[in-house]
Amino acid sequence: MNEKESFMSGIWTNLHKRCGSNHEISLKVFTEAVIETKPEITYEEYCYLTKEFFARRGIVGNSNYIPKEFCWFVREFAKQNGHPKVFIPFATGFEGGLFEDGTDVSYHFYSKENEEAIKMVKELNTIEDSEENSPYDLIVASLPLGPLTYKSIQTQVVESCVEVLSKEGYCIFSFAKMITLASSSKWLSELEQMGLFCNAIIDMPMGAYAPFTMVDSEIVVFSKRRSEKIFTGLMGEEEFAEKIVSNFLNGKPSTNGPKLGVYVEGDVKYYSDYINVSRIQNKGKSLAKNYNGQLLKISQIASIHAPDNNNEFKECDNAVYVPKLGNSPVITDIPDFHI
Protein backbone atom coordinates (compact mmCIF):
# COMPACT_ATOMS: atom_id res chain seq x y z
CA MET A 1 0.00 0.00 0.00
CA ASN A 2 1.51 3.34 -1.08
CA GLU A 3 1.42 6.54 1.02
CA LYS A 4 -1.74 7.90 -0.57
CA GLU A 5 -3.65 4.63 -0.19
CA SER A 6 -2.49 4.38 3.41
CA PHE A 7 -3.72 7.92 4.04
CA MET A 8 -7.11 7.16 2.47
CA SER A 9 -7.45 4.04 4.60
CA GLY A 10 -6.59 6.04 7.72
CA ILE A 11 -9.27 8.63 6.94
CA TRP A 12 -11.87 5.92 6.47
CA THR A 13 -10.92 4.29 9.77
CA ASN A 14 -11.25 7.58 11.65
CA LEU A 15 -14.57 8.33 9.92
CA HIS A 16 -15.90 4.92 10.87
CA LYS A 17 -15.07 5.63 14.52
CA ARG A 18 -17.09 8.85 14.31
CA CYS A 19 -20.00 7.82 12.08
CA GLY A 20 -20.15 4.05 11.98
CA SER A 21 -21.63 2.87 8.67
CA ASN A 22 -23.49 6.15 8.11
CA HIS A 23 -22.66 7.53 4.66
CA GLU A 24 -24.27 10.90 5.43
CA ILE A 25 -20.88 12.39 6.32
CA SER A 26 -20.60 16.16 6.77
CA LEU A 27 -17.54 17.99 5.51
CA LYS A 28 -16.73 19.16 9.03
CA VAL A 29 -16.66 15.60 10.40
CA PHE A 30 -14.67 14.49 7.37
CA THR A 31 -12.10 17.29 7.88
CA GLU A 32 -11.68 16.36 11.55
CA ALA A 33 -10.89 12.79 10.43
CA VAL A 34 -8.38 14.10 7.87
CA ILE A 35 -6.55 16.22 10.45
CA GLU A 36 -6.50 13.32 12.91
CA THR A 37 -4.95 11.14 10.21
CA LYS A 38 -2.41 13.75 9.05
CA PRO A 39 -2.20 16.84 11.32
CA GLU A 40 0.37 18.57 9.10
CA ILE A 41 -1.64 18.32 5.87
CA THR A 42 -1.39 21.31 3.52
CA TYR A 43 -4.45 22.98 1.98
CA GLU A 44 -3.45 21.83 -1.52
CA GLU A 45 -3.09 18.22 -0.32
CA TYR A 46 -6.42 18.50 1.51
CA CYS A 47 -8.26 19.74 -1.62
CA TYR A 48 -6.80 17.03 -3.85
CA LEU A 49 -7.28 14.12 -1.47
CA THR A 50 -10.74 15.22 -0.33
CA LYS A 51 -12.01 15.43 -3.91
CA GLU A 52 -10.57 12.01 -4.67
CA PHE A 53 -11.97 10.48 -1.50
CA PHE A 54 -15.51 11.72 -2.17
CA ALA A 55 -15.27 10.60 -5.79
CA ARG A 56 -14.16 7.10 -4.81
CA ARG A 57 -16.74 6.60 -2.10
CA GLY A 58 -19.67 8.42 -3.71
CA ILE A 59 -20.55 9.84 -0.30
CA VAL A 60 -23.26 12.48 0.09
CA GLY A 61 -21.50 15.81 0.05
CA ASN A 62 -20.18 15.56 -3.50
CA SER A 63 -21.75 18.93 -4.43
CA ASN A 64 -18.39 20.35 -3.33
CA TYR A 65 -16.79 18.89 -6.45
CA ILE A 66 -15.25 21.36 -8.93
CA PRO A 67 -14.43 19.96 -12.41
CA LYS A 68 -10.79 20.14 -13.47
CA GLU A 69 -11.88 21.75 -16.76
CA PHE A 70 -13.42 24.64 -14.82
CA CYS A 71 -10.20 24.98 -12.81
CA TRP A 72 -8.05 25.04 -15.97
CA PHE A 73 -10.15 27.79 -17.52
CA VAL A 74 -10.37 29.99 -14.41
CA ARG A 75 -6.67 29.65 -13.57
CA GLU A 76 -5.68 30.69 -17.10
CA PHE A 77 -8.26 33.48 -17.17
CA ALA A 78 -6.96 34.99 -13.92
CA LYS A 79 -3.40 34.68 -15.19
CA GLN A 80 -4.04 36.44 -18.52
CA ASN A 81 -6.32 39.06 -16.97
CA GLY A 82 -3.61 40.30 -14.61
CA HIS A 83 -3.74 39.94 -10.83
CA PRO A 84 -7.40 40.67 -10.16
CA LYS A 85 -9.32 41.22 -6.98
CA VAL A 86 -11.38 38.03 -6.81
CA PHE A 87 -14.69 37.20 -5.14
CA ILE A 88 -16.09 33.66 -4.78
CA PRO A 89 -19.80 34.16 -3.91
CA PHE A 90 -20.63 30.45 -3.61
CA ALA A 91 -17.50 29.05 -2.00
CA THR A 92 -17.13 25.32 -1.41
CA GLY A 93 -13.65 25.62 0.06
CA PHE A 94 -12.13 23.52 -2.71
CA GLU A 95 -11.05 26.43 -4.86
CA GLY A 96 -7.40 25.74 -3.98
CA GLY A 97 -5.11 26.04 -7.01
CA LEU A 98 -7.49 28.30 -8.95
CA PHE A 99 -5.31 31.35 -8.38
CA GLU A 100 -1.63 32.14 -8.04
CA ASP A 101 -0.18 32.85 -4.60
CA GLY A 102 -0.73 36.45 -3.58
CA THR A 103 -4.04 36.86 -5.43
CA ASP A 104 -6.54 38.86 -3.37
CA VAL A 105 -9.46 36.40 -2.91
CA SER A 106 -12.59 36.88 -0.78
CA TYR A 107 -14.90 33.95 -0.02
CA HIS A 108 -18.60 33.79 0.83
CA PHE A 109 -19.81 30.40 2.02
CA TYR A 110 -23.47 29.44 1.75
CA SER A 111 -22.73 26.61 4.18
CA LYS A 112 -21.33 27.82 7.51
CA GLU A 113 -20.38 24.24 8.31
CA ASN A 114 -18.22 24.10 5.18
CA GLU A 115 -16.65 27.41 6.17
CA GLU A 116 -15.78 26.06 9.61
CA ALA A 117 -14.36 22.88 8.07
CA ILE A 118 -12.10 24.64 5.57
CA LYS A 119 -10.83 27.08 8.18
CA MET A 120 -9.39 24.09 10.04
CA VAL A 121 -6.80 23.75 7.27
CA LYS A 122 -6.54 27.25 5.72
CA GLU A 123 -6.93 30.90 6.67
CA LEU A 124 -9.50 32.52 4.39
CA ASN A 125 -10.72 36.08 3.87
CA THR A 126 -14.47 35.47 4.28
CA ILE A 127 -17.25 38.05 4.05
CA GLU A 128 -20.92 38.26 4.95
CA ASP A 129 -23.67 39.32 2.52
CA SER A 130 -23.78 42.78 4.05
CA GLU A 131 -20.09 43.31 3.27
CA GLU A 132 -20.40 42.63 -0.46
CA ASN A 133 -19.85 46.23 -1.47
CA SER A 134 -16.40 46.44 -3.02
CA PRO A 135 -15.85 46.18 -6.77
CA TYR A 136 -14.25 42.91 -7.84
CA ASP A 137 -12.35 42.33 -11.09
CA LEU A 138 -13.21 38.64 -11.25
CA ILE A 139 -16.13 36.76 -9.68
CA VAL A 140 -15.98 32.97 -9.87
CA ALA A 141 -18.17 30.10 -8.66
CA SER A 142 -18.76 26.47 -9.51
CA LEU A 143 -22.54 26.44 -9.07
CA PRO A 144 -24.83 23.47 -8.26
CA LEU A 145 -26.16 21.75 -11.37
CA GLY A 146 -29.85 22.02 -10.45
CA PRO A 147 -32.58 23.48 -12.68
CA LEU A 148 -32.61 27.22 -13.39
CA THR A 149 -35.86 28.22 -11.75
CA TYR A 150 -37.11 31.55 -10.41
CA LYS A 151 -34.96 32.41 -7.38
CA SER A 152 -32.98 29.16 -7.57
CA ILE A 153 -29.61 29.30 -5.85
CA GLN A 154 -27.84 29.69 -9.21
CA THR A 155 -29.88 32.69 -10.34
CA GLN A 156 -29.62 34.31 -6.90
CA VAL A 157 -25.83 33.99 -6.85
CA VAL A 158 -25.43 35.46 -10.34
CA GLU A 159 -27.86 38.32 -9.73
CA SER A 160 -26.13 39.21 -6.44
CA CYS A 161 -22.90 39.82 -8.36
CA VAL A 162 -24.24 42.64 -10.56
CA GLU A 163 -23.62 45.35 -7.96
CA VAL A 164 -20.16 44.17 -6.89
CA LEU A 165 -18.58 43.50 -10.30
CA SER A 166 -16.20 46.21 -11.53
CA LYS A 167 -16.95 47.99 -14.79
CA GLU A 168 -14.23 46.09 -16.67
CA GLY A 169 -14.56 42.87 -14.68
CA TYR A 170 -15.82 39.37 -15.51
CA CYS A 171 -17.97 36.71 -13.83
CA ILE A 172 -17.25 33.04 -14.55
CA PHE A 173 -19.79 30.40 -13.48
CA SER A 174 -20.49 26.75 -14.21
CA PHE A 175 -24.01 25.76 -15.27
CA ALA A 176 -25.83 22.71 -16.52
CA LYS A 177 -26.38 22.94 -20.29
CA MET A 178 -29.96 24.07 -19.65
CA ILE A 179 -28.49 27.59 -19.56
CA THR A 180 -28.58 27.38 -23.35
CA LEU A 181 -32.22 26.33 -23.62
CA ALA A 182 -34.99 28.66 -24.74
CA SER A 183 -36.50 28.48 -21.25
CA SER A 184 -33.39 30.20 -19.87
CA SER A 185 -33.53 33.05 -22.40
CA LYS A 186 -36.08 34.98 -20.28
CA TRP A 187 -33.75 34.95 -17.29
CA LEU A 188 -30.75 35.98 -19.41
CA SER A 189 -32.84 38.85 -20.81
CA GLU A 190 -33.79 39.92 -17.29
CA LEU A 191 -30.12 39.75 -16.34
CA GLU A 192 -29.32 42.12 -19.19
CA GLN A 193 -31.86 44.56 -17.78
CA MET A 194 -29.83 44.46 -14.56
CA GLY A 195 -26.67 45.26 -16.52
CA LEU A 196 -25.00 41.84 -16.79
CA PHE A 197 -24.45 40.30 -20.23
CA CYS A 198 -23.50 36.77 -21.32
CA ASN A 199 -20.30 36.99 -23.40
CA ALA A 200 -19.14 33.38 -23.68
CA ILE A 201 -20.45 29.83 -23.24
CA ILE A 202 -17.68 27.21 -23.20
CA ASP A 203 -18.59 23.52 -23.29
CA MET A 204 -17.10 21.15 -20.75
CA PRO A 205 -17.00 17.52 -21.94
CA MET A 206 -19.67 15.07 -20.82
CA GLY A 207 -18.41 13.45 -17.64
CA ALA A 208 -16.79 16.61 -16.25
CA TYR A 209 -18.74 15.98 -13.01
CA ALA A 210 -18.36 12.18 -13.09
CA PRO A 211 -18.81 10.00 -11.11
CA PHE A 212 -21.47 12.17 -9.42
CA THR A 213 -23.45 13.04 -12.55
CA MET A 214 -23.18 12.82 -16.32
CA VAL A 215 -25.15 16.05 -16.86
CA ASP A 216 -23.70 18.18 -19.66
CA SER A 217 -22.21 21.36 -18.27
CA GLU A 218 -20.92 24.75 -19.40
CA ILE A 219 -18.54 27.49 -18.34
CA VAL A 220 -20.37 30.81 -18.77
CA VAL A 221 -18.65 34.21 -18.80
CA PHE A 222 -20.56 37.42 -18.00
CA SER A 223 -19.53 41.07 -17.95
CA LYS A 224 -21.14 44.52 -17.93
CA ARG A 225 -20.39 44.85 -21.66
CA ARG A 226 -22.90 43.66 -24.26
CA SER A 227 -21.70 41.18 -26.89
CA GLU A 228 -23.35 41.08 -30.29
CA LYS A 229 -22.18 37.47 -30.68
CA ILE A 230 -21.45 34.72 -28.17
CA PHE A 231 -17.93 33.26 -27.95
CA THR A 232 -17.90 29.46 -27.64
CA GLY A 233 -15.42 26.59 -27.62
CA LEU A 234 -14.65 23.25 -25.96
CA MET A 235 -12.64 23.13 -22.72
CA GLY A 236 -11.63 19.52 -23.28
CA GLU A 237 -7.89 19.53 -22.57
CA GLU A 238 -5.70 21.55 -20.21
CA GLU A 239 -3.60 22.83 -23.09
CA PHE A 240 -6.74 24.32 -24.68
CA ALA A 241 -7.15 26.83 -21.84
CA GLU A 242 -4.39 29.26 -22.83
CA LYS A 243 -5.59 29.67 -26.42
CA ILE A 244 -9.33 29.73 -25.61
CA VAL A 245 -8.87 32.45 -22.98
CA SER A 246 -6.50 34.42 -25.22
CA ASN A 247 -8.91 34.28 -28.16
CA PHE A 248 -11.79 35.43 -25.96
CA LEU A 249 -9.97 38.29 -24.25
CA ASN A 250 -8.56 39.50 -27.56
CA GLY A 251 -11.91 39.18 -29.35
CA LYS A 252 -10.47 36.93 -32.06
CA PRO A 253 -11.94 33.66 -33.37
CA SER A 254 -9.55 30.73 -33.47
CA THR A 255 -7.70 29.99 -36.69
CA ASN A 256 -6.86 26.50 -35.38
CA GLY A 257 -10.35 24.99 -35.36
CA PRO A 258 -13.61 25.84 -33.57
CA LYS A 259 -12.68 23.99 -30.35
CA LEU A 260 -10.40 26.88 -29.40
CA GLY A 261 -13.11 29.49 -29.80
CA VAL A 262 -15.48 30.90 -32.41
CA TYR A 263 -18.26 33.50 -32.39
CA VAL A 264 -21.84 32.33 -32.91
CA GLU A 265 -25.16 34.15 -33.09
CA GLY A 266 -28.90 33.58 -33.12
CA ASP A 267 -30.21 30.29 -31.79
CA VAL A 268 -26.72 28.75 -31.73
CA LYS A 269 -25.36 29.30 -28.24
CA TYR A 270 -22.77 26.65 -27.50
CA TYR A 271 -20.05 24.56 -29.12
CA SER A 272 -21.81 21.23 -29.66
CA ASP A 273 -24.81 23.04 -31.15
CA TYR A 274 -22.45 25.01 -33.40
CA ILE A 275 -20.89 21.77 -34.63
CA ASN A 276 -24.30 20.21 -35.33
CA VAL A 277 -25.56 23.30 -37.15
CA SER A 278 -22.35 23.54 -39.19
CA ARG A 279 -22.69 19.89 -40.20
CA ILE A 280 -26.31 20.43 -41.29
CA GLN A 281 -25.43 23.62 -43.17
CA ASN A 282 -22.58 21.92 -45.00
CA LYS A 283 -24.87 19.04 -45.97
CA GLY A 284 -27.49 21.56 -47.13
CA LYS A 285 -24.96 23.43 -49.24
CA SER A 286 -23.88 20.16 -50.82
CA LEU A 287 -27.48 19.26 -51.68
CA ALA A 288 -28.13 22.75 -53.05
CA LYS A 289 -25.07 22.45 -55.26
CA ASN A 290 -26.06 18.99 -56.52
CA TYR A 291 -29.56 20.20 -57.45
CA ASN A 292 -28.34 23.56 -58.71
CA GLY A 293 -30.65 25.10 -56.10
CA GLN A 294 -30.57 27.86 -53.52
CA LEU A 295 -30.13 27.15 -49.79
CA LEU A 296 -32.88 28.87 -47.77
CA LYS A 297 -34.06 28.89 -44.18
CA ILE A 298 -37.65 27.78 -43.55
CA SER A 299 -38.38 31.24 -42.15
CA GLN A 300 -37.52 32.74 -45.55
CA ILE A 301 -40.34 30.90 -47.32
CA ALA A 302 -42.97 30.35 -44.60
CA SER A 303 -44.17 31.39 -41.17
CA ILE A 304 -43.44 29.11 -38.21
CA HIS A 305 -45.96 28.38 -35.45
CA ALA A 306 -45.73 26.39 -32.24
CA PRO A 307 -48.72 24.82 -30.44
CA ASP A 308 -50.37 26.98 -27.76
CA ASN A 309 -50.88 26.13 -24.09
CA ASN A 310 -53.75 23.82 -25.04
CA ASN A 311 -51.48 22.02 -27.51
CA GLU A 312 -53.51 23.38 -30.42
CA PHE A 313 -52.16 24.92 -33.63
CA LYS A 314 -53.10 28.17 -35.29
CA GLU A 315 -55.21 27.44 -38.35
CA CYS A 316 -53.49 28.17 -41.63
CA ASP A 317 -53.58 26.83 -45.18
CA ASN A 318 -50.84 24.76 -46.79
CA ALA A 319 -49.35 23.76 -43.44
CA VAL A 320 -46.62 21.21 -42.81
CA TYR A 321 -46.25 19.81 -39.29
CA VAL A 322 -42.69 18.95 -38.24
CA PRO A 323 -42.00 16.91 -35.06
CA LYS A 324 -39.61 18.55 -32.61
CA LEU A 325 -38.59 15.22 -31.07
CA GLY A 326 -37.90 11.79 -32.52
CA ASN A 327 -37.71 10.93 -36.19
CA SER A 328 -41.38 10.70 -37.20
CA PRO A 329 -42.17 11.91 -40.73
CA VAL A 330 -43.66 15.36 -41.33
CA ILE A 331 -47.41 15.46 -41.97
CA THR A 332 -49.86 17.83 -43.64
CA ASP A 333 -53.02 17.05 -41.62
CA ILE A 334 -53.39 17.15 -37.83
CA PRO A 335 -55.42 13.86 -37.69
CA ASP A 336 -52.31 12.10 -39.00
CA PHE A 337 -50.47 12.72 -35.75
CA HIS A 338 -49.48 9.47 -34.00
CA ILE A 339 -48.68 11.19 -30.68
Description of the structure:
This protein is α/β, with parallel strands linked by helices. Helices cover 34% and strands 16% of the residues. Helix 6 (153-160) links the parallel strand 3 and strand 4. It is elongated and about 75 Å long. 30% of the residues are buried.
Give the key terms:
339 residues; alpha/beta; 8 strands
Give the overall silhouette.
Answer: elongated
* Span of the ends, CA to CA: 59 Å
- The neighbouring-strand order within the major sheet is 2-1-3-4-6-5-7-8
- The low-pLDDT segments are none
What is the oligomer described by this structure? single chain
* Helix count, DSSP H or I runs of 4 or more residues: 9
Compute the number of strand runs: 8
Could you say which structural class the secondary elements and strand pairing correspond to? alpha/beta
Mean pLDDT: 80
Beta-strand portion reads 15-25%
Estimate the helix proportion, in percent: 25-40%
Order of helices and strands: HHHHEEHEHEHEEEHEH
Major sheet: 8 strands, mixed
The radius of gyration over CA amounts to 24 Å
Briefly say what this structure is.
This protein is of the alpha/beta class. Helix content is 34%, strand content 16%.
Break the fold down into its secondary structure elements and pairings.
Blueprint: H1 3-19, H2 27-37, H3 43-57, H4 68-80, E1 85-91, E2 104-109, H5 112-118, E3 136-142, H6 153-160, E4 165-176, H7 182-194, E5 197-204, E6 217-223, E7 230-234, H8 240-250, E8 262-264, H9 271-290
Parallel strand pairs: 1-2, 1-3, 3-4, 5-7
Antiparallel strand pairs: 4-6, 5-6, 7-8
Helix pairs in contact: 1-2, 2-5, 4-8
